[in-house]
Specification:
alpha/beta; Rossmann fold; globular; transport; ABC_transporter-like_ATP-bd; Sulfonate ABC transporter ATP-binding protein; P-loop_NTPase
Length: 261
């Protein structure tokens, strides 16, 4: 059974007297432990789709379910990380994570233990008692990831989480996320504009056109992923295929996809 199942999803917004459909008959299955990136042009509905999966936005018709259970709102079975860090500025790093755990009804002792484990996971132990204002952008996003993972969600939903970071920090965060995912194996739905990022991180890439799923690409690159892979023939070929699809062309056959890895 797929961890996240979206079937025949329709979503529209009211604009004055007109109704604009932003998602049309979307069907998508994301399996247990699968890393799936959603790419496409701005305004195609990527973030709306993720928000619906998170239970933060309603929809007109269709089915959205986790392990066969229909989503009726936000829940601790799904962790969410946005581009903005959404940390509480009056709480320290540890307290921000403990705040989420208290909401999930963990005891005080469990909150401290789990918070410290996840601070270590994202390599921020020396900054456990720091305030968000004392952290860099990349460090704030590490805290946001640690917080989202701390209550053991089945699914991690990420909407352009590294979009506001500089190139160097962004790549460091990609490596961190890849390492965490490969160690802990959870289901990830990842929205991004960066095709290179999608290829590097994903098992599968879903290309959206305006309000629809246009095509999908399997990513047959071996794991663990490493930086040298980004200049391999297989990586660059898939990157070109995804870009061609986003620009409106049909995906070309993946000739010898593993060649040059």
């Amino acid at each position: 059974m797929a961890t996240l199942s979206i079937r025949n999803l329709h979503k529209s917004f009211q604009q004055g007297k007109q109704t604009r459909e932003v998602l049309h008959n979307i069907s998508l299955e994301i399996a247990d432990n699968e890393f799936v990136s959603i790419v496409g042009t701005s305004g195609c509905g990527k973030s709306t789709l993720l928000s619906i999966a998170a239970g933060l936005e309603d929809y007109d018709s269709g089915v959205v379910a986790v392990d066969g259970n229909t989503i009726t709102g936000a829940g601790i079975d799904r962790g969410v990380v946005f581009q903005s860090y959404t940390l509480l500025p009056w709480l320290t790093v540890r307290q921000n994570i403990e705040f989420a755990l208290k909401a999930a009804h963990y005891s005080r002792a469990e909150c401290r233990k789990i918070a410290d484990e996840h601070i270590e996971l994202v390599q921020l132990t020396p900054f456990a008692d720091a305030w968000p204002s004392e952290l860099s952008g990349g460090m704030k996003q590490r805290v946001a990831i640690a917080r989202a993972l701390s209550y053991r969600p089945k699914i991690l939903l990420m909407d352009e989480p590294f979009g506001a970071l500089d190139a160097m920090t962004r790549h460091q965060m990609q490596e961190l996320l890849t390492r965490i995912w490969e160690q802990h194996r959870l289901t990830v739905m990842f929205v991004t504009h960066d095709i290179e990022e999608a290829v590097y991180l994903s098992d599968r890439i879903v290309v959206m056109g305006p309000g629809t799923i246009q095509t999908t690409f399997d990513v047959p690159l071996p794991r663990p992923r490493h930086e040298d892979m980004m200049v391999s023939n297989a990586f660059l070929l898939l990157q070109r295929q995804v870009l061609h699809s986003i620009r409106g062309g049909q995906p070309r056959p993946a000739a010898s996809p593993l060649r040059g890895v």
